[in-house]
Amino acid sequence: RYMAGWATKIEGSTHEHSVPFALQAQMVAYTRREPVGVVAAVVPWNFPLLVAIWKLGPALAAGCTVVLKPAEQTPLTALMLAELTQEAGFPPGVFNVVTGDGPGTGAPLVSHPLVNKVSFTGSTEVGKLIGHACVDHMTRFTLELGGKSPVIVLDDCDPATAAAGAANAIFFNHGQVCCAGSRLYVQKKMFDRVVADVADHARQLTLGHGLDPAAQMGPLVSQEQMDRVCGYIDIGRSQGAEVLAGGGRAGERGYFVQPTVLASVRPEHRVVREEIFGPVLVAMPYDDLDEVAAWANDSPFGLGASIWSNNLSQVHRLIPKLQAGSVWVNCHSMLDPGMPFGGYKQSGIGRDMGRAALDAYLETKSVFINV
Ligand code: NAP
Ligand code: MG
Questions:
Q1: Distance between CA atoms of 137 and 110, rounded to whole angstroms?
Q2: Quick check: 30 and 98 in contact, CB under 8 A?
Q3: For the whole model, what pTM was predicted?
């Protein structure tokens, strides 16, 4: 609905020019925005329908056509969306879905010479491949990539509120969230209390079938992802991390991983630096704002960050220091169709949602008319 509103509000501007008077020309100058053309949208499995819509909405509002490639694990919602667009009367060819894996289907799609723009959400590794492929044809591209988002608890806030917020920031959707709050920094005088509370939350979560209303956390998406996440927990242990909750696979059936909290980690440990994309939190104490800002920024990623505090002066001092595309205060992973979402640094190039997303599906043409 938000993007549909933009469809009637795409506009250029008229300009008072500064062409030298000696040319004796009287010019009319203006800009117009035009659809970029055919869009290839390549999306991941963790929020398959939502992320597809983030691409489709602004592309259609701008007047583009779309070829969507869902992840091989999650093609069904994309295909159903295509059926619904047919039922709604979209002209043939405006919205198209191609299924298949990354190398076989995604790679030829993004390097196709008739594609004008690629909108990608996924890992930083694949995002780089796609960016390189796009430059060959000067295909425009936006990349929404991975993250390792910090959750920063200041010393003034209620420990129970902060702990509940931190637990939700990492365990929502089993940690398979690009902006998951996967690094927890707590001011050292509150560290033990807050981290013990987060570990309690982790232990109390009910794991179960994704369609069971009583389940608070379902399985991970695949065996591969479960093995990857458990592998990271083992790496953490072998580098000296202390396991405060969880610590491995849950049960013998299904791809369940225990909500896990690791402490006694160091900034150079792999579990602190790399995106795990599962229900695994690393927790570290800090002294003051400058120190926590430096640690929060000591990451190749810069997608999100949350601050937990009621001290507005401290909060406003910290917000400009954080290298993150979104900063949330007393909340985490808050998204809105009107608010741009994307990353600093290796978390991506460009934004989904908001007017910024629409702009990425439009070209700008400058027109001079000698009257
Ligand atoms: P991924 O491996 O990067 O795959 C994403 C998509 O790219 C899939 O459809 C995949 O196809 C396709 N792909 C793989 N190799 C390709 C290639 N060489 N050329 C073209 N397409 C290719 O990511 P994922 O494992 O599905 O998702 C997890 C990652 O996405 C995490 O890193 C997460 O942080 C990130 N993510 C970011 C955001 C954000 O908004 N910033 C949101 C959600 C997820 P197949 O899988 O079918 O092979
Ligand atoms: Mg994949």
A1: 10
A2: no
A3: 0.96
Q: Of 134, 144, 179, 275, which one is the catalytic site residue?
A: 144
The percentage of residues in the chain with a pLDDT greater than 70, rounded to a whole number, is 99
Compute CA 102 distance to the chain's CA centroid, rounded to the nearest angstrom. Answer: 19
Q: From ligand 2's centre to the CA of 103, what distance in Å?
A: 10
Residue 223: pLDDT band by 50, 70, 90 thresholds? very high
Answer for the pair 323, 346: CB distance below 8 angstroms, yes or no.
Answer: no
Query: What are 280's strand-pairing partners?
Result: 260
What residues contact 26, with CB distance under 8 A and at least 6 apart? 370, 371
Residue 157 annotated to the active site: no
* Gap between the Cα atoms of 78 and 70, Å rounded: 7
CA angle 16, 17, 21 (to 5 degrees): 120
Q: How many whole angstroms separate alpha carbon 185 and alpha carbon 321? A: 15
What percent of the chain has a predicted confidence (pLDDT) above 90? 96
The partner residues of 121 in beta bridges, in order of sequence, read: 144
